[in-house]
Design goal:
This protein is an alpha+beta fold. It has 2 domains: about 30-145, Beta Polymerase, domain 2, CATH 3.30.460; about 235-470 and about 490-550, Cytochrome-c3 Hydrogenase, chain B (Orthogonal Bundle), CATH 1.10.645. It has 19 helices and 15 strands. The strands form 5 sheets. It has a 5-stranded mixed β-sheet with strand order 1-2-5-4-3. Strands 8-9-10 form a 3-stranded antiparallel β-sheet. The radius of gyration is 23 Å and the shape is globular. It starts with a helix and ends with a helix. About 45% of the residues are buried.
């Protein structure tokens, strides 16, 4: 039955949990692993569809959906769903939608090995469309009623019945390829033709296959085929000690090494009850904001370059290079790889370093503002980016987009604001939100975030606590068997969700990582519709999704 404390919270706050409790009664159970801002429930798998309907109606968003093989615990398979739900707004004259802070509701559902299936959530949450195809591909768990049973990430030449994330998967056995094929969606009608692009591209980028159907120059449909850089990341985590996982996390997507390592560390610290020294907490935020600035600078220049305005690419690349070189000089790595470790930060900053960053921020801000004026006042550039690749607020909400892609369409989604983790609960981030949802607004969100990151870095340096960046008594990670941990971080692309589970012996049993690209690729498919083929590079770069972050 539902715990008495859980019922008391429901009555006092009148949250969506009350509706769930009234709907499911004793079928709904709460876990003692629940903590501030995160509620963990269990519910039979055949009821999860109705729970999703209730959460959708309450304004919830499906943040992640994954499976576990719990046979080492004497159980069978399980489905996990994570929903971000708006909290009750603060009271008072200034209260309103923008003052809300999200909470997370995680629901675990047992799935029997004899009938590995559950009702699909795609009717309520579009993001489930690919989450559930991944679950089918890697666990063999079917989502009943799903509109598309084609494999996702795993490719068609994998042998039938091979589900690598199950505990009994023969990962050391010879890999016997099958002769499967992938059925692409086809466009029909007079004048409709198809344009295949990739998977190998002309630029030095990762592989991904795109199929366009078009009439003349107008795009009717775009279908993506990813998975070409699948590396078995989540499976690899299971063979590593807790202390080594941060290194692998930092290599999930090379341009988000800080964000992914931080999400991993926060999940492990949440699971094991580790406390990070204040200095380590603030240094982590410094690294995260420097990563955000570097990537946004590169993106703004690259978007301009795809509109044949190479001047901005050259100038913004120069500014980005300055940031990376100072990273190397102060911290030993251009991309800040391996700077974040469980328990704190692996690099520190002295007085000279603080002054060097302050000087850098002053110079960067002055030069960046001049370039923003050039971007905004160039009519040929504005002609290409304004009204191009529009994603409406409704579409962005329906797809569950995150990060700058969501904020450019008017959706508040910044986890530094809506689920503030330390020290952002003290920094009070100003969230950049635009409303047109086009390429131009996705650029402007980046511009505002560069400005805000510069401000945040200045404040971090002014408030940086003393002491050590790592625990003074060393690090010991000994989680209870079956204990789980959740790490949520606002990377430069958007919300990263990392979930970890300790096995019966306390070692790594399961790790789930949800990169922003895993939901935002759906947004690109919608953004290009009705646009001309030559504007696809602009639309694509304005999202700048990660192939590697997707193909785990």
């Amino acid at each position: 039955m539902v715990a008495p404390h859980f019922k008391q919270v429901l009555v006092e706050k009148v949250l969506v949990e009350q509706v769930l409790a009234e709907q499911f009664g004793d079928l709904l159970r709460t876990s003692d692993a629940s903590r501030d801002g995160v509620l963990i429930l269990s519910l039979p798998a055949d009821e999860i569809h109705e729970a999703a309907r209730i959460l959708k109606k309450s304004g919830g968003r499906l943040s992640a959906e994954w499976a576990t093989d719990d046979t080492p615990f004497g159980r069978e398979l399980a489905l996990w769903t994570a929903f971000a739900v708006p909290n009750v707004p603060d009271s008072g004259p200034d209260a309103g939608p923008d003052t809300k802070i999200d909470r997370f509701i995680l629901i675990r559902s047992d799935v029997p090995l004899s009938n590995p299936a559950f009702p699909t959530l795609t009717g309520h949450f579009a993001a489930a469309y690919r989450f559930e195809r991944i679950i089918l591909s890697f666990f063999g768990i079917d989502s009943i009623g799903h509109p598309d049973r084609r494999p996702w990430i795993r490719h068609e030449d994998w042998p039938d019945g091979f589900f690598p994330l199950r505990k009994d998967a023969p990962i050391d056995a010879p890999f016997v390829r099958s002769n499967g094929s992938y059925e692409w969606i086809r466009g029909e009608g007079e004048g409709v033709y198809e344009i295949p692009v990739g998977p190998v591209h002309a630029g030095i980028i990762e592989p991904g296959h795109f199929r366009f159907q078009a009439v003349g120059e107008t795009i009717l449909n775009l279908e993506e085929r990813l998975g070409y850089v699948h590396k078995g990341i989540e499976k690899r985590f299971e063979s590593l000690p807790w202390t080594e996982g941060a290194r692998l996390a930092g290599r999930i997507s090379g341009d988000s090494t800080v964000a992914h390592a931080l999400a991993w560390c926060r999940a492990v610290e949440d699971m094991a009850g580790l406390l990070v020294p204040p200095r380590g907490v603030w240094l982590r935020a410094l690294f995260l904001e420097r990563e955000r600035i570097a990537n946004h600078l590169g993106d703004i220049g690259a978007i301009a370059n795809d509109a044949a305005f190479a001047f901005l690419l050259a100038q913004l690349s120069r500014l980005r290079e300055d940031v990376l070189r100072l990273n190397k000089r102060l911290f030993g790595h251009r991309l800040l790889m391996d700077m974040i470790v469980p328990g704190g930060a692996a690099a520190d900053l002295d007085a000279k370093g603080i002054e060097a960053i302050r000087t850098e921020m002053d110079r960067l801000s002055a030069e960046f503002e001049r370039l923003v004026v050039i971007y905004d006042e160039n009519p040929s550039l504005q002609d290409r980016v304004a009204t191009t690749g529009v994603v409406t607020k409704k579409t962005a909400a329906d797809l569950g987009l995150v990060g700058f892609a969501a904020r450019a369409s008017g959706i508040s989604s910044d986890r530094r604001v809506r689920f503030p983790f330390p020290p952002y609960d003290e920094l009070k981030v100003s969230e950049a939100i635009r409303h047109s949802g086009d390429v131009n607004d996705r650029v402007w969100v980046r511009i505002e975030e560069v400005r805000e990151s510069i401000r945040l870095i200045r404040e971090i340096l002014a408030r940086l606590p003393g002491g050590s960046a790592l625990p003074s008594d060393g690090l010991s990670i000994r989680p209870q068997p079956g204990r789980t941990g959740l790490g949520i971080v606002e990377g430069w692309r958007g919300e990263i969700v990392t979930w970890v589970q300790a096995g019966p012996s306390g070692k790594v049993s399961r790790v789930m990582v949800r990169d922003p690209s895993q939901v935002n690729w759906l947004g690109l498919e919608r953004a290009v519709l009705g646009n001309i083929v030559p504007d696809f590079p602009l639309c694509n770069k304005s999202f700048n999704q990660s192939y590697s972050g997707h193909d785990m």
